[in-house]
Amino acid sequence: MGVKRDLTGAHWRKSSYSGGNNGDCIEVADNLPGLIPVRDSKRPSGPVVVFGVEGWGPFVAAVRGGRL
What we know:
The chain has 68 residues and is of the alpha+beta class. It has a four-stranded antiparallel β-sheet with strand order 1-2-3-4. The protein is built from one helix and four strands, in the order ββββα. The longest helix is centred in the C-terminal third of the chain and has 12 residues, at 53-64.
């Protein structure tokens, strides 16, 4: 079980790479110090994956590199 985080102040934005995928989009909030939460735009009240700032860059690099 993960740690419960208060994300009520999160300012969500859709990923610029999610554009033409028939609504299959992710949203990212980048206004929370030290945290990068990610969620499915179709399920805004659903689960959220929260990355630490230090893990975000390697995650994005792995996605861009086709490893994920």
